[in-house]
């Protein structure tokens, strides 16, 4: 039996992973779907002080207080930044890092650095006009349960350098089904291009959109199938 901890991306919550977790449990595994502070059902805790460090500690504490070992730690989109930070703190609890169209920083980079100045300028503008200066609403109709991204989390750099974390098994999956004109496409293609040049990675591609669990027919089933194949 494997233990999966599924870390959501921006604008989501642990609820977005619930159908995937159900599939993994049906297959005989254990799965946790924590919600990062300020998101989902924890949206009432959102504030301008919430940063990447907060979200890293959210997941570190799940591993510690659930006493989890050998975890398959999965990060989607912004969750990739979080699981990288978790690996820096508690590599001894992790068996495999899996990035699903996720951010992978180099030492000292923030999500904002990976997004690039043009996209970050857009985030800053949205925060000023629609988010009280500190949050970034998704800004699409019928967003349902999607909650705001906190700007400080996007701007905080992550220091990467723990040799034990560097030795962990790690897998990157680029989702290639995003529209060519999406601002997400060049961001994650750039990250994937770097990963393909680095040692120690298992690299894969799937024809999924960026949020397949929410925006693609049978997305949760396909993502669960992918995770079972990879791990």
What is the N-to-C order of secondary-structure elements (H for helix, E for strand)?
EHEHEHEHHEEHHEHEHH
**Spatial shape:** globular
- Model regions low in confidence, pLDDT < 50 over at least 5 residues: none
End-to-end distance: 11 Å
User: Mean pLDDT, as a whole number?
Assistant: 96
Q: Rg to the nearest angstrom?
A: 16 Å
Reported by name, the CATH topology is Rossmann fold
The helicity comes to 25-40%
Number of strands: 8
Biggest sheet statistics: 6 strands, parallel
> How many structural domains are formed by the residues?
1
Beta content: 15-25%
The CATH superfamily is known as: Alpha/Beta hydrolase fold, catalytic domain
Strands across the major sheet, in which order? 2-1-3-4-7-8
- The CATH C-level class name: Alpha Beta
* Number of separate helices: 10
Q: Would you identify the CATH architecture?
A: 3-Layer(aba) Sandwich
Structural features, described:
The protein has 231 residues and is α/β, with parallel strands linked by helices. It has one domain (3-108, 159-230): Alpha/Beta hydrolase fold, catalytic domain (Rossmann fold, 3-Layer(aba) Sandwich), CATH 3.40.50.1820. The chain has helices spanning 18-26, 52-65, 79-89, 111-115, 117-130, 151-155, 163-166, 184-197, 212-215, 219-230, and strands at residues 3-7, 30-32, 71-76, 94-100, 135-136, 149-150, 169-175, 201-206. The strands form two sheets. The chain has a six-stranded parallel β-sheet, sandwiched between helices.
Characteristics:
231 residues, alpha/beta, Rossmann fold, two-stranded antiparallel ribbon, 10 helices, 8 strands, 40% helix, 16% strand, globular
């Amino acid at each position: 039996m494997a233990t999966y901890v599924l870390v959501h991306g921006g604008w989501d919550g642990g609820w977005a992973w619930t159908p995937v977790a159900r599939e993994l449990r049906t297959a005989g595994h254990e799965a946790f779907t924590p919600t990062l502070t300020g998101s989902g059902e924890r949206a009432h805790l959102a504030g301008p002080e919430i940063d990447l460090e907060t979200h890293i500690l959210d997941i570190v504490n799940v591993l510690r207080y659930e006493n989890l070992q050998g975890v398959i730690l999965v990060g989607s989109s912004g969750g990739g930044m979080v699981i990288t930070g978790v690996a820096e703190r508690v590599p001894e609890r992790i068996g495999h890092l899996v990035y699903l169209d996720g951010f992978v920083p180099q030492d000292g980079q923030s999500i904002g650095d990976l997004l690039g100045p043009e996209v970050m300028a857009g985030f800053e503008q949205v925060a000023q006009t629609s988010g009280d200066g500190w949050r970034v609403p998704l800004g699409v109709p019928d967003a349902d349960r999607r909650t705001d991204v906190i700007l400080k989390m996007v701007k905080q750099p992550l220091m990467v350098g723990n040799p034990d974390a560097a030795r962990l098994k790690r897998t990157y999956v680029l989702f290639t089904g995003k529209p060519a004109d999406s601002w997400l496409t060049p961001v994650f293609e750039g990250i994937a291009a770097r990963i393909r040049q680095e040692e120690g990675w298992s690299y894969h591609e799937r024809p999924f959109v960026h949020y397949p669990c929410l925006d693609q027919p049978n997305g949760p089933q396909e993502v669960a199938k992918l995770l079972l194949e990879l791990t």
